[in-house]
């Protein structure tokens, strides 16, 4: 994670750097959130594609990482 941040010129706060170095001792939630954030940064900076689900019913489900596509409810 530190190498990724350095290679992508993402500036980490001292608290996040310390958490990464400590191995996220408070549990998986913080780790998952940081990995998700880094993935989103990859997408919005064009370094990777979003990987949107191809099936319409899956795209409408809440919870996939970059959010829901806009759609008209029927």
Question: How would you characterize this protein structure?
Answer:
With 74 residues, the protein is an all-alpha fold. It has one domain (2-59). It is built from four helices and no strands. It has helices spanning 2-7, 14-22, 28-44, 56-59. The protein starts with a helix and ends in a 15-residue tail after the last helix. The model is unreliable at 67-74 (pLDDT under 50).
Entry summary:
This protein has 74 residues and is mostly helical. Helix content is 49%, strand content 0%.
Instruction: Write down the overall geometry.
Output: flat
* Tally of helical runs: 4
Helix content: 40-55%
Give the terminus-to-terminus CA distance.
42 Å
Q: Which class best fits the helix and strand makeup?
A: mainly alpha
Strand content: under 5%
Largest sheet: none
Radius of gyration: 15 Å
Question: What's the helix-strand series?
Answer: HHHH
User: Domains counted in the coordinates: how many?
Assistant: 1
| Averaged pLDDT | 82
Low-confidence segments: 67-74
- Work out the number of β strands: 0
Give the topology.
Blueprint lengths: L1 H6 L6 H9 L5 H17 L11 H4 L15
Give structural attributes:
74 residues; mainly alpha; 4 helices; flat; disordered C terminus
């Amino acid at each position: 994670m530190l190498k990724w941040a350095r290679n992508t010129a993402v500036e980490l706060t001292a608290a996040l750097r310390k958490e990464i170095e400590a191995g996220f001792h408070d549990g998986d939630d913080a780790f998952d959130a940081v990995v998700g954030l880094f993935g989103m940064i990859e997408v919005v900076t064009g370094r990777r594609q979003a990987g949107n689900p191809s099936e319409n019913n899956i795209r409408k489900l809440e919870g996939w990482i970059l959010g829901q596509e806009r759609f008209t409810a029927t």
